[in-house]
Design brief:
Shape: globular
Helix content: 40-55%
Structural class: alpha/beta
Radius of gyration: 21 Å
Strand order of the largest sheet: 2-8-7-6-5-3-4
Number of helices: 15
Order of helices and strands: HEHHEHEHEHEHEHHEEHHHEEHEEHEH
Number of strands: 13
Largest sheet: 7 strands, mixed
């Protein structure tokens, strides 16, 4: 079976607008099955979780299905799946909780490659307790963040390393398993921002060596919220702030208030949607195996389009591609000689092509590339992009550059 992008596109009602979407790193469009799952959850009886009345049973089933689906997606234990309003909120919550165990002079390592959501919470938590922040720099010429750049910042006082699984600005995919080995050898925990990575690659929490990993379902066809995955036994050692009557069970102790069951139902449907894009039939394998097959198919499709765009951009004068790492997602950051990237964004928008401009909260990365706070034009591919989208993008860029 080959990857049928036309069949994929047919499942996204928003694509009927005619816009060529290259804004996936900021949030993908939503397939009809996810919309339907959200509506179904809200149409059936729904109450606080329990085991007696239909509404209670429905709510409890939605939560259990959500945790299992995300565990299958991330190669994790469903007992370690935590719901959050966003990846940023989860990281702030966990930074405050973990910082309670730090002392003055302890150290935290962050990376300049990261989205600010995996930098500022740790910097601010460290400041509050008198811990030291150490910075791992990526190579602006290549976009690479080698493990040794992180390792050079580790000492016997390092308590936590925070690093991205993939840069949302330039697509770089650091060698997370190698970083994990270095962090753990130093006695530190590893917190991985998997928001951009999970949209494009199969994730396995144990293989990565991550102690914590956060992601955002709206980056892979689901609703707007965040998810954290960790080992249940590790979560059991942490004492977050919570209400006195709230359960102390893991992972519920980290989830504040009544859960939005409809969003959880939508996320389960998004995971199932991805699983259906592989070449393994549903009756022949479990969801995890089908997800691995799907990510392989999606990856081949996205990589082929990325390479075609890169080839087309090379023929355009005055364009610099800032995405250069050997291992990277299908995400390109472009800058233009003598022209502001925002001009390119607006020119493309007039032709129905959505490729946004900015630094996209990867402020440290943009500055380290010498782009200040302005950044560049980000071209982010997703599973539903096709050759026509690519041709419209390249034609729009050619017209913009004259």
């Amino acid at each position: 079976m080959s990857y049928d992008v036309s069949a994929v596109r047919a499942q996204f009602p928003a694509l009927s607008s005619g816009t060529a979407h290259f804004d996936g790193p900021g949030g993908t469009q939503t397939p009809a099955s996810v919309v339907a799952a959200i509506g179904e959850a809200m149409s059936r009886p729904l109450s606080n979780r329990g085991s007696t009345l239909p509404g209670e049973v429905n709510a409890d089933g939605i939560v259990r299905e959500f945790r299992q689906a995300m565990a299958d997606l991330l190669g994790a234990d469903p007992g370690g799946i935590v719901f959050g309003r966003s990846a940023t909120q989860l990281t702030y919550d966990f930074s405050r909780t973990l910082a309670r165990t730090w002392e003055p002079g302890d150290e935290v390592v962050v990376s300049r490659l990261d989205h600010d959501a995996n930098i500022r919470p740790w910097v601010q938590a460290a400041e509050r307790v008198g811990a030291v922040v150490r910075w791992a720099d990526f190579d602006p010429a290549t976009g690479e963040l080698p493990p040794e750049a992180v390792g050079a910042q580790l000492t016997g006082r390092t308590r936590l390393v925070a690093v991205t699984g993939a840069s949302n600005l330039i697509g770089t995919r650091p060698d997370i398993p190698a970083v994990a080995r270095l962090a753990h050898a130093a006695g530190a925990l590893l917190y991985v921002d998997g928001v951009h990575l999970t949209a494009h690659a199969a994730v396995d929490l144990e293989r990565l060596g991550a102690d914590f990993l956060v992601c955002s379902p709206y980056k892979f066809f689901g609703p707007h919220h965040g998810v954290l995955a960790a080992r249940p036994e590790l979560l059991g050692t942490l004492r977050p702030d919570k209400l006195a009557p709230s359960t102390d069970a893991v992972p519920e102790r980290f989830e504040l208030g009544t859960l939005p069951y409809e969003l959880m139902a939508g996320t389960r449907a998004a995971v199932d949607f991805i699983a259906e894009l592989g070449t393994v039939a549903a009756g022949l394998a479990g969801r995890r195996e089908r997800l691995l097959s799907a990510y392989a198919a999606i990856g081949s499709h996205e990589t082929a389009l990325r390479e075609s765009i890169e080839k087309g951009v090379r023929d355009l004068r005055g364009v610099t591609v800032r995405s250069r790492a050997a291992e990277r997602t299908p995400t390109l950051l472009l800058t233009f000689e003598g022209r502001d990237a925002t001009e390119a964004y607006r020119a493309l928008a007039r032709s129905g092509v959505h490729a946004p401009a900015g630094s996209f909260y990867a402020l440290e990365a943009s500055r380290h590339l010498g782009l200040g706070e302005s950044g560049g034009l980000r071209v982010g591919l997703s599973a539903y992009n096709d050759a026509d989208d690519m041709e419209r993008l390249l034609a729009g860029l050619a017209d913009f550059l004259g």
